[in-house]
Structure formats: C-alpha cells, structure tokens
Write a structure and sequence with these properties.
The protein is built from 7 helices and 6 strands, in the order H-E-H-E-H-E-H-E-H-E-E-H-H. With 186 residues, the chain is an alpha/beta fold.
Length: 186
C-alpha cells in the first residue's frame, strides 16, 4: 500500500520472477482486466506513448494532481514525434469519449482505440494515466508508468504533479530499471 515503503531487497528475485510470470500469463494470456477487453491485435510499431483515460470526475477517496484532460493535453504537447495511443475507459461518458475521439489523427501520430489493454501495452514505451489500475497492469508487461494522482502502486512509477514536467517524467520513467517483478510480488 502507498503508506508502506517498498524495498525490493526484501523480495527474493527468483520467487518474484516465477510469481510475476504466473500472474502475467494468467492476465495477459486470458486478456483479463477489471473491465472486459476487446479481442484481437493492435497494429502500430512499438515505441509509442500509451495514454489510458478514466472517469473525468475527481475521485472521493484519493487525490488527482491533474485532471484527465490536463494529462491528455500535456501528453499531446510532450510526445514530440512519438506516436500517442489513447485508450478510452469503458466508463467514459459519451461526452468524455467525444473529447478523446476529437484528438484521433492517425496521420499526425495520434490514435484513439478501444483495443485491449493487453494488445496496447506490449508496444508501449511508456504508460500515462492519472490513477487507473492499468498502471499496475503495465507492470505485468514490464512497462514504465507515469501517474498523475495517488495510487497504491505509485512506488513503482513516476508521479507527476506539474503538467509542464511530463517530458521529464517520461524520460525519467523510461531511463529507470524498474523492479516490476518484485513490486508485483510485494
């Protein structure tokens, strides 16, 4: 939990490797997530930023440092020449979906898709989300994560509080050797 310090030295590497593999195989192999996922592949060359939306309303039980819209605007500005994949949340309202779909411009490197998270995550260079559980699922794919709010898994990600620093946060997240296997086991 977010109030306890994670120390990867306290997790046995071999055990963590086996445990992570079992959990990853179960979720990825069966295309499982908190919400039903589409079947099929996602066809885009690897190396993109993956933005996972969620409900746009502020939560009652944890803190968001940025809104979904603020993080999205920061991602659009920070991506440079890197493609950006935007995945709407199954609970997005029609207005929220319309706002996300308004950015769909494949010829400009911005893709909005309902593909499975397990089809999107393998090719992602970095995962961006406010507090969605897909951030934790990204650890099953061994992907770096940038969050913009409080989560129970923020110790294995970069937490962004200033949208102007997203480029730096992405670079830091991608440069770090994350202990995903040990963290998932912990």
């Amino acid at each position: 939990n977010r109030l306890v310090d994670f120390d990867p030295r306290l997790v046995v590497a071999e055990f963590a490797k086996r445990f992570h593999s079992r959990v990853a195989n179960r979720f990825i192999g069966a295309n499982l997530s908190k919400f039903p996922q589409a079947a099929g592949d996602f066809c885009l060359p690897p190396g993109y930023l993956a933005f996972f939306a969620q409900d746009f309303q502020a939560p009652r039980f944890h803190r968001h440092y940025l809104t979904v819209q603020q993080l999205l605007q920061a991602a659009l500005a920070a991506r440079g020449d890197c493609p950006l994949v935007i995945k709407p949340h199954p609970n997005n309202s029609p207005d929220e979906r319309a706002l996300l779909l308004a950015h769909h411009a494949p010829d400009q490197g911005v893709h909005v898709t309902d593909a499975s998270i397990h089809a999107i995550l393998p090719g992602a260079a970095c995962v961006l989300t406010v507090t969605s559980a897909v951030g934790f699922e990204a650890f099953l794919h061994r992907k770096p994560v940038v969050l913009a709010g409080q989560t129970d898994f923020g110790q294995n990600a970069i937490t962004l509080t200033d949208p102007a620093r997203l480029t730096e946060a992405i670079s830091t997240a991608m440069a770090r050797d994350w202990p995903h296997e040990k963290f998932v086991t912990w």
